[in-house]
Structures are given as C-alpha cells and as structure tokens.
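Customer escalation, tier 2.

The customer says the design service returned an amino acid string that "doesn't look like it belongs to this structure." They asked us to rerun it and document both sides in this ticket. The original structure tokens are below, unchanged.
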C-alpha cells in the first residue's frame, strides 16, 4: 500500500512539474509580460552574477535596518545623512504624494528606449539609482482632461468613473488611491516635446500591477507615462525593490512600495532636445517681436484710457537717455532708459480698478507665507493701495481679478477626484458674474484685465475663460502657453515670516563663500534626480543634496545659501522654483537649470548679466562650467545680484522699485505695448 502511494505521489509530482515547465516555456516563447513573474518564483534569493539581468530578493537587504516604519540602508546604499527624511513613510500632508502602493511591470519597447534616450538596460546604473534614492515618494505627473496641451495627456476610460489625474507640485494636495489602489484610474500621457506635432507617434511606457492583480491582470490599472523632456520617472515608496528581469523590453519590479528612476543617456538626441529649448536670447527676441506686432483685442467702443496708453508707449519708445541714476544700475537692465520712463509713467498715469465681487476665501483673501506667497502679497498690497487703485472703472487702464489660485485649490479641489473641472467652472462663473454686472470685461473681451497666480495649476485653470487676460504666472513656461507680450512672469517667493519678509536678508561676502555650489530639495520632477545622480556626494566643492534634515527656521538650508558662490535653481515638476529669488535674497549667484523658463521681469532685466543659465542637458558639465567662470566675472555677478536685489523684496509698505511695483510694472508694460484703439465709427 505504501509503495503504491509513493508511486502515485511521484507520478503526480512529475506531472505537476511538467505542466509548470510547459506553462513557463509557453510564456517565454510568446514573450508574454507576466512570464518574468513566473520565473521569479524559481529564482528567489539568487544573487546576480556577471552578465545576468536578474536581481532578486525576498525580503529586506541584509544591509538594511528597519526601524519605525523606515528602511535605512548602509552607507553604500543610502542617501547619506538624509536617508531618514527620504525614506520615512511619515510625510507632511500634501507632500511626497503616493498613488499606488503596489508593484508593477514596466514594459519598454526598443523604439521607446531609442527615442527617449534611456540607458539601454544598464543594470548597475538603474539599481544604483534605486539604492541611492531610497524610499523616495513622489507624485506622478498627470493632468485633467482639460489640460492635454499642458501635460500632453490623453485620458482614457478608467475604473474610477471617468475621472482623470491632476497635476501636482510642491506642497501638493492629496494622496489619491493611497488606501484604495483598486480604484486607481487609467491614463495615457505622450511626450509633448519631440512629438508635439505628432502625438500619435509618441513612445509610451506601460506599467501594470503585479501585486493584487497577479491573477486578474485585465483588471489592473494601467499607467502610460512619458518623460517631461529627456527622461521619465515612475515613483512609489521604496522599501525592497527587486528587479526580476531587466532587458531592453521589460523591467519588472516586485514587492510593495518601490521607486525607480531611469536616467537618460547624457548625449542622446542632444540635437532634438536642444532644438526644443528656447534660450534667453531667443526669449528676448520673441519679446521684442511681440511688442512690435502683438495687439490685444480691439475695444468694442473707444475710451480715453486707450489714447493715454498709446501716448505712454510713444514716450517710452522715445525715452531720454539715462546716465548714472543712483537707484538703477544700468548693466542689469535691458534698456535702463526705457524702464525708467515706463516706471515714471506708471506712477503718474496708471489706474487700476479692483473688482469687489466674490467671496472669501478664494477672492479677497491673501495668504502671506509659503512658496505661493507672491499672489497673496500682491493681492494684499494692491487692494490696500491708494496711489493706483481707482473707484471709477471708467478711468481704469487695468482691471484686477483678485482671486488666489492657491486658495482656489484649497477650497474646491476634491482629494481623490483628480479633476480640475469644478475649479475651472468656479472661475467661469466668476467671469460671468462680473461681465453681467459690469460692461468693462465685454469692451475688450478681458484684454485689459489681469490676474496674478502662483500655483502650478494657474496656467491651465485660466487658459479657457481668461485666455485674453494679462496673466502674471509663476509657472511661466514657453512650452505651456506663456504668451510673450501679454503674459508676465511672476517671481515665486518663499516668504517665511509674514511680519518681517526681509528678515535674514543678505549673506557672506564673496571671499567667505567657501562652497562652489549648493542645492537641496525634494526630488520633484525629472531634473533634480539627474542633478543628484551626477553630483550628490561626488565632489567636496559641490554641496548637492536631497532634502536636508529639518532644522529650526530652516537654518541649515539658509546657511548653505549664505555661504555658497552659486546656488543651483533646478526646476521641480514645473519650470519655476522659489530658489531663484532665494538665491538673490541671500546674495548667491543663481544657476538656473530649467529649460524654457521665462525669468521674472524679462522685459526689463538682463538676466544673463547677473545669473548663470544652464541647459538641462549640460548638468553633467555643471562643475566645469562653474569653474570656467573667472573669479573677476564671479565677483561682478555677485555685485550685480546685490544691485538687482531690491526688485525682489516684499515690504509691508511698498517702496519704489520693489517687487510689488515690479510686478505691477510688468503688467502695465505689457498693456501699454499691446493697447489698440477702437476703429472709426465705433461708439
């Protein structure tokens, strides 16, 4: 009896093994995407060998220490002294958002790899990137269906009732789907740079869950995401990242909570990428061309203010030559004579009507701290201003729409909805209200109206119903609808103390700035991971970090700003960064790494005279570029930073040429150079 049982058991076992092997061979032969999952069942705990593309683990690394819901790797695997902050699962609200806490299969076609410039499955590079970044938690870059031009997104039907993701940025809202991954939507995003005119040809990345959907892959949420210019990033909290297969077609990740960043080849498609970048000199040309040719909507009826604007333009274009003005250092301006005359005419002529309609907190409710404080400070000072504000709208050259893009998001965005539709509808209703109550919007279609918005969503939220308005935007991106000659670039200012916004102004003298370059910040977007990939812990002169450990009043960060020659201003999710103004505030020469970013006050300031602007593709050359700058030129740059500094300071009571007046001047200047009168015969 025992022998018979053994015989039956042996045959059954052999039969089971045969079926399993047949299934595996079938998957391999057909190159189905889940074959690597099956293979991983037979390859656990194996160490990678030379020439192998398989990396496996069934638990935490033997070098990892798990403590308080953190995973801290040893020295070679960690991000150094910042590891606890990077890997901590306890994050501040609205930061480091996480969408899904599952594994996925990332399927990369060979055409995709070629077009996007990835390392061609350089195993060690990708694994090192995973090790180095640790538990980085970040938000996928996606957008509402109304924002396809902004993000290059094409929404698909999904399993959350047709809703779509929204874009996120620093201090973002929500953790959609963190607790309900099964409800995660499907979306498709295509590259908006090399394939802007032919999105159907854009390569895609497909990420499928292999955790809860292992037995029902057809139900798995699908993510198809592109790079934002030269790379893409798919992020999750990383605890134990396991590469079960790595080749030109497939990267399969196992375990929950992981992050992988694929860094592009340094010199791949440089000609294509370079052609997509608008340089500062090209921006200046576009600005001059727009002032020569761009005209706003012709008014439906004539007004005395139109003639006043045309007269101001003539006087600015024929401005008297300025020599040795003690308040204006000529070398930092595009044309100091035109700027001075324009500013004088603004003080003498400009009248602004501020609409009183609308309820708090979205309207008439400024906030004065944080990275979006520019719009709040401007609102506060504009509404309280007695010099420019008029109660007679017939005398107004400009009409101010006093809403806060940040308050709009806080008040109306529904976490987990992944839609901006209600925010856009609110602004539409607001415009309908003022246009029904007043005739002034209808006279120009809103062309003499302006808004000030610093939140990243402001460009896309205002492009439908406020597209003719003058938009002062922090997110001033050439590739995302910024219109030269109409829109203005709004400085993004990080205000830490609302009572004393200029506290701790200044920094060490040039001779006491011991660090060549400094950067610290969260890994938002694709540029910062590349920056850290090349420079973190690579050179003692380059103080390049992830997020610094917390300190009272952010003392560590400020100390580095004050003691470094150059402060790296690398873009996050969007082109803008508060570091540009911070660098000027602490008298550190800003190094702007953000392709297609329109710097603030470009119509007035000559940014190349006091800042260093580097293309994203040149990040590997960063140090060589900086050390090639002669000491004499650095001293000149730093001196000019001090000269331009007063244009970027907030004051509780505005002073001449400060940031409040400079923002208003940008809006005035664009209005003057786009003004047009009604045709003859109009009433």
């Amino acid at each position: 009896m025992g022998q018979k049982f053994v015989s039956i058991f042996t045959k059954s076992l052999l039969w089971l093994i045969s079926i399993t092997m047949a299934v595996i061979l079938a998957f391999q032969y057909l190159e189905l995407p889940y074959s690597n999952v099956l293979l991983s069942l037979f390859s656990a705990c194996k160490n990678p060998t030379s020439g192998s593309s398989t990396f496996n683990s069934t638990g935490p690394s033997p070098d990892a220490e798990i403590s308080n819901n953190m995973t801290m790797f040893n020295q070679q695997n960690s991000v150094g002294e910042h590891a606890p902050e990077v890997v901590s699962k306890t994050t501040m609200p609205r930061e480091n958002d996480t969408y899904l806490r599952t594994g996925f299969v990332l399927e990369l076609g060979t055409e995709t790899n070629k077009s996007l410039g990835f390392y061609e499955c350089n195993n060690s590079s990708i694994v090192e990137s995973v090790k180095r970044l640790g538990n980085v938690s970040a938000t996928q870059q996606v957008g509402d269906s109304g924002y396809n031009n902004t993000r290059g997104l094409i929404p698909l039907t999904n399993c959350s009732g047709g809703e779509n993701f929204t874009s996120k940025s620093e201090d973002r809202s929500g953790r959609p789907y963190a607790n309900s991954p099964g409800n995660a939507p499907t979306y498709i995003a295509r590259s908006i740079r090399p394939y802007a005119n032919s999105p159907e040809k854009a390569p895609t990345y497909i990420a499928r869950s292999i955790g809860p959907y292992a037995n029902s892959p057809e139900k798995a949420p699908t993510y198809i995401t592109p790079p934002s210019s030269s790379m893409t990033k798919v992020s999750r909290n990383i605890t134990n990242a396991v590469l079960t297969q790595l080749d030109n077609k497939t990267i399969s990740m196992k375990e929950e909570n992981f992050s992988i960043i694929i860094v592009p080849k340094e010199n791949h498609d440089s000609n294509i990428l370079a052609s997509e970048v608008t340089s500062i000199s090209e921006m200046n040309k576009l600005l001059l061309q727009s002032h020569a040719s761009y005209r706003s909507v012709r008014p439906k009826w004539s007004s005395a203010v139109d003639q006043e604007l045309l007269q101001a333009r003539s006087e600015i274009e024929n401005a008297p030559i300025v020599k040795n003005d003690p308040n204006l250092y000529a070398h930092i301006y595009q044309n100091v004579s035109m700027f001075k005359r324009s500013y004088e005419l603004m003080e003498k002529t400009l009248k602004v009507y501020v609409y009183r309609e609308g309820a708090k907190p979205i309207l008439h409710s400024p906030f004065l701290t944080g990275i979006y404080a520019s719009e709040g400070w401007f609102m506060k000072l504009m509404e309280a201003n007695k010099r420019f504000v008029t109660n007679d709208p017939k005398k107004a050259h400009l009409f101010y729409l006093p809403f806060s893009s940040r308050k709009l998001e806080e008040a109306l965005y529904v976490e987990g909805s992944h839609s901006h539709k209600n925010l856009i509808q609110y602004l539409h209703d607001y415009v309908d209200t003022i246009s029904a109550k007043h005739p002034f919007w209808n006279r120009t279609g809103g062309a003499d109206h302006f808004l000030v918005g610093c939140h990243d969503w402001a460009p896309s939220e205002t492009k439908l119903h406020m597209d003719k308005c003058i938009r002062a935007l922090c997110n001033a991106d050439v590739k995302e609808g910024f219109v030269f000659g109409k829109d203005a670039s709004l400085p993004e200012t990080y205000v830490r103390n609302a009572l004393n916004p200029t506290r701790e102004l200044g920094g060490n003298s040039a001779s006491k700035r011991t660090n060549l370059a400094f950067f610290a910040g969260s890994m938002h977007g694709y540029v910062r991971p590349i920056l850290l990939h090349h420079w973190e812990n690579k050179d003692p002169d380059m103080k390049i970090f992830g997020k610094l450990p917390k300190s009272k009043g952010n003392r560590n960060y400020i100390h580095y700003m004050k003691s470094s020659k150059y402060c790296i201003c690398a873009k996050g999710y969007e082109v803008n960064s508060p570091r540009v103004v911070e660098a000027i505030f602490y008298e550190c020469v800003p190094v702007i790494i953000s392709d297609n970013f329109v710097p603030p006050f470009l119509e007035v300031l000559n940014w190349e005279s006091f800042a260093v602007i580097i293309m994203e593709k040149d990040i590997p050359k960063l140090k060589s570029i900086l050390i090639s700058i002669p000491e004499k030129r650095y001293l000149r740059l730093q001196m000019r930073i001090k000269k331009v500094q007063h244009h970027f300071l907030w004051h509780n009571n505005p002073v001449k040429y400060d940031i409040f007046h400079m923002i208003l001047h940008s809006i005035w200047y664009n209005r003057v150079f786009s003004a047009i009168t009604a045709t003859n015969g109009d009433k």
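Tier 2 assessment: The sequence is consistent with the input. The first strand starts at residue 65 and ends at 67. The CA atoms of residues 393 and 439 lie 10 Å apart. Sent an explanation to the customer and offered a walkthrough call.
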